[in-house]
C-alpha cells in the first residue's frame, strides 16, 4: 500500500461505527487510482496503526474488505476561466466581451456578468424576436449585422425614407446606433467582431436622432413604428444630462407610449427599454420623464468590477442594471461591439451601452415565452435581477417591506439572463393592473413633512393591494430648485429618494409643476396605511420654497401569489436570522461568564 500518513492528505485513520476506514486522496473523474479504502475487523485498530507505520501488510489477516478508489474532481469556487465555460465562439472580440462572460478580463470581477451562457445553454438566442434601435441609424451593411437586419421593420424618420443608414461625418459621430445594434444582434461564429446578447434576434433601425432639433411628431412616430412587428424598443437617449434640465415626453409621444403598452404586440404591449442617463452625481434620473415613466424599463450601468460608473445617475425609478465602462483606463474595460463601415470597437460606453444589453436579455426571455406582457417583463426584472457584486460608496443595498433587495442606484440589481429565461418558461401572466388616487394635499405652504393615510381604494373596483409603481405628483417652487431634496416613506417603512440635490440647477421660477416622481422600490408592498413625504433643502446657502400640491398615485394589482411566497420566504429568513442572532448572543454571554469565572478562580 502506498502513501500512508497519520493525518496527511494521502491517507488518514478514522473509526466509523465498528470499522476502521483508511481514506485516500482525490484524482481525476472516472479514473481508478492506486489508493485503496481498507475496512478492517473491529478488533484490528492496533494492527492497523502498525501497518501504517511499517508500510507493510502484517495485518492482512485482519482485513475485512478492500475498495479500489475512483478519482473525481473538485473545483475552486469564485473563479472561472473562459476556456472552461462551454461557449465556443469564433468571433475575435468574444473573449473581450466581459459583460457576457466575466472571467476577470481587464481586471474585472469574475462572475459579474449578464449570465447569458446559461440562457444560451438552454437554447435561447433571441430567435423570432425583433428589437428596434431608436437612434442615429444603423450600418445595416455591416457584415456582423446584415444577416440579422430586419429591413421591413426599419425606417428613417430623419430623412423620411426606409433606409436608416447613418449620415457620414469625419469624426464618426453617428456610430451610436450601430454600436448599440451590435450589442443586441451581432451574429455569432462568423469570425467578425463579437457576439450579440441575443445573437439570433432581428434588429431594426429607426433613425430619428440626426436632425437639428427633435419634434413630438418624430418621437411619437418612432416609438409607435410597426408595434405588431417590433417587440422591443431600445432608447439610449433623453433630455440633456446637464444637471439642470427637467423634461420628458410631450403629448403625442405620451399617447404613443400608452398605445404601445396597451395595443402593441397584439395587446401584450410594446417593451420600451430606456437608458437612465449620464449626468452623474450632478443629475437625477427622476427629472427625466422617459427614464422615470412607468411604461419604460429604466436601466442603469455598472463597470466590470461592480462599481458604479462616474456618469451614472441615481433615482428611485431605475428598475435594474447592466454593464458599461467607466473609471478604468484599460481599453478592454469598455464594451466590445460593432462599429461603422464594417469595423469593430472596444470603446462603446455610457448608459447608452447598458440599455441595448437589457434589450438583448429581454429578447431571450421573449423567445422562452412569447406571451410575456410588458408588465410581465418588469416583474421578471424585479424578481430575477441580482445584487451579485454590485456596490457603491454612497448608496447601500436595502430590503423593502416584502424582502426584495434594491439599491437607489442599481435598482433591483444586474439582469440575469439565465434566471430570467428559466422563470419566463414557467411564468403566468400577472393579474390585471389597477390605478388608485390615494390622496392629495394642496396648498401645504412651507411644511417640510406631509402625510397621507390611505386604504388604497379598498372596497372599490380599483383597489390596489400589491404595488408595482408609485407616483408622487408634486408641484413645488423654490428659490433654488437644485437644492430641493424629496423623500417618501411607505406604510411598510421603505424610504425612496424621489429627488436628490442637483448642484447645477439654479432655477428659481419654474420649479416642478405636477411632476410625477416615481419609485419602484415599494414593489410588492401593501400600500394601505400612512405615506410620508419629506421636502427639504441641501446646499451651501439657505433656501425657501412652497409645496403647493402632492398627489399620491398607486399602481398595482389586487392579487399576486408570488409576492405572498416572497413574503413567506423573507419572514422565514428573518426568523432564522433572529434565531442565529440569539444564538450568537447566548454564545457571547456564555463566553463572558466563563471568562468571569476563570478570572475569579485565578
UniProtKB/TrEMBL annotation:
UniProt main location, coarse: secreted
P/Homo B domain location: 429-560
InterPro entries: Galactose-bd-like_sf (IPR008979), Kexin/furin (IPR034182), P_dom (IPR002884), Peptidase_S8/S53_dom (IPR000209), Peptidase_S8/S53_dom_sf (IPR036852), Peptidase_S8_Asp-AS (IPR023827), Peptidase_S8_His-AS (IPR022398), Peptidase_S8_Ser-AS (IPR023828)
GO biological process terms on file: peptide hormone processing
Residues annotated as the enzyme's active site: 135 (charge relay system), 176 (charge relay system), 352 (charge relay system)
An annotated GO cellular component: membrane
Catalysed reactions, as listed in the record: Release of protein hormones and neuropeptides from their precursors, generally by hydrolysis of -Lys-Arg-|- bonds
EC number: 3.4.21.94
EC supergroup of this enzyme: hydrolase
UniProt keyword list: Cleavage on pair of basic residues, Disulfide bond, Glycoprotein, Hydrolase, Protease, Secreted, Serine protease, Signal, Zymogen
Family: Belongs to the peptidase S8 family. Furin subfamily.
Name of the protein in its database record: Neuroendocrine convertase 2
Lineage: Eukaryota, Metazoa, Chordata, Craniata, Vertebrata
Amino acid at each position: 500500500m502506498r502513501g500512508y500518513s497519520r493525518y496527511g492528505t494521502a491517507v488518514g485513520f478514522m473509526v466509523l461505527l465498528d470499522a476502521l476506514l483508511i481514506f485516500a486522496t482525490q484524482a481525476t473523474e472516472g479514473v481508478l487510482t492506486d489508493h485503496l479504502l481498507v475496512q478492517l475487523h473491529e478488533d484490528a485498530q492496533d494492527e492497523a496503526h502498525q501497518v501504517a507505520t511499517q508500510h507493510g501488510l502484517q495485518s492482512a489477516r485482519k482485513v475485512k474488505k478492500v475498495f479500489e478508489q475512483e478519482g473525481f474532481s473538485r473545483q475552486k469556487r469564485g473563479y472561472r476561466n473562459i476556456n472552461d465555460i462551454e461557449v465556443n465562439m469564433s468571433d475575435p472580440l468574444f473573449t473581450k466581451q466581459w459583460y457576457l462572460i466575466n472571467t476577470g478580463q481587464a481586471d474585472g470581477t469574475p462572475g459579474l456578468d449578464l449570465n447569458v451562457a446559461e440562457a444560451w445553454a438552454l437554447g435561447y438566442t433571441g430567435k423570432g424576436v425583433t428589437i428596434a434601435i431608436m437612434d442615429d441609424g444603423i450600418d445595416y451593411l455591416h457584415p456582423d449585422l446584415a444577416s440579422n437586419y430586419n429591413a421591413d421593420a426599419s425606417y428613417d424618420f430623419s430623412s423620411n425614407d426606409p433606409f436608416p443608414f447613418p449620415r457620414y461625418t469625419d469624426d464618426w459621430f453617428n456610430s451610436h446606433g450601430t454600436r448599440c445594434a451590435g450589442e443586441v444582434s451581432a451574429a455569432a461564429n462568423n469570425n467578425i467582431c463579437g457576439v450579440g446578447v441575443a445573437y439570433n434576434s432581428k434588429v431594426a433601425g429607426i433613425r430619428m436622432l440626426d436632425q437639428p432639433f427633435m419634434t413630438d411628431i418624430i418621437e411619437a412616430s418612432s416609438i409607435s413604428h410597426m408595434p405588431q412587428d417590433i417587440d422591443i424598443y431600445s432608447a439610449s437617449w433623453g433630455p440633456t444630462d446637464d444637471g439642470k434640465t427637467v423634461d420628458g415626453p410631450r403629448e403625442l409621444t405620451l399617447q404613443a407610449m400608452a398605445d404601445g403598452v396597451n395595443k402593441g404586440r397584439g395587446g401584450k404591449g410594446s417593451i420600451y427599454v430606456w437608458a437612465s442617463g449620464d449626468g452623474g452625481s450632478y443629475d437625477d434620473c427622476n427629472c427625466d420623464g422617459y427614464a422615470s415613466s412607468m411604461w419604460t424599463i429604466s436601466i442603469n450601468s455598472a463597470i466590470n468590477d461592480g462599481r458604479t460608473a462616474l456618469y451614472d445617475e441615481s433615482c428611485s425609478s431605475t428598475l435594474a442594471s447592466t454593464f458599461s465602462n467607466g473609471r478604468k483606463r484599460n481599453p478592454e474595460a469598455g464594451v466590445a461591439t460593432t462599429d461603422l463601415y464594417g469595423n469593430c470597437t472596444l470603446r462603446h460606453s455610457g448608459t447608452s451601452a447598458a440599455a441595448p444589453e437589457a434589450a438583448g436579455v429581454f429578447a431571450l426571455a421573449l423567445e422562452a415565452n412569447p406571451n410575456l406582457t410588458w408588465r410581465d417583463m418588469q416583474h421578471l426584472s424585479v424578481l430575477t435581477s441580482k445584487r451579485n457584486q454590485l456596490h457603491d460608496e454612497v448608496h447601500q443595498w436595502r430590503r423593502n417591506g416584502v424582502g426584495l433587495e434594491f439599491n437607489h442606484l442599481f435598482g433591483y440589481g444586474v439582469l440575469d439572463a439565465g434566471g430570467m429565461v428559466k422563470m419566463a418558461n414557467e411564468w403566468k401572466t400577472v393579474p390585471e393592473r389597477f390605478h388608485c388616487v390615494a390622496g392629495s394635499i394642496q396648498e401645504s405652504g412651507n411644511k417640510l413633512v406631509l402625510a397621507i393615510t390611505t386604504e388604497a381604494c379598498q372596497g372599490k373596483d380599483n383597489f390596489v393591494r400589491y404595488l408595482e409603481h408609485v407616483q408622487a405628483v408634486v408641484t413645488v417652487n423654490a428659490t433654488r430648485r437644485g437644492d430641493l431634496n424629496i423623500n417618501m416613506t411607505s406604510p411598510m417603512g421603505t424610504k425612496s429618494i424621489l429627488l436628490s440635490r442637483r448642484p447645477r440647477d439654479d432655477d428659481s421660477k419654474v420649479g416642478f409643476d405636477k411632476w410625477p416622481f416615481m419609485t419602484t422600490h415599494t414593489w410588492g408592498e401593501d400600500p394601505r396605511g400612512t405615506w410620508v413625504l419629506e421636502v427639504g433643502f441641501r446646499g451651501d446657502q439657505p433656501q425657501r420654497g412652497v409645496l403647493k400640491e402632492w398627489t399620491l398615485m398607486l399602481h398595482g394589482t389586487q392579487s399576486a401569489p408570488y409576492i405572498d411566497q416572497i413574503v413567506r420566504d423573507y419572514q422565514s429568513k428573518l426568523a432564522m436570522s433572529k434565531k442565529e442572532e440569539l444564538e450568537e448572543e447566548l454564545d457571547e454571554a456564555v463566553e463572558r461568564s466563563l471568562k468571569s469565572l476563570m478570572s475569579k478562580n485565578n
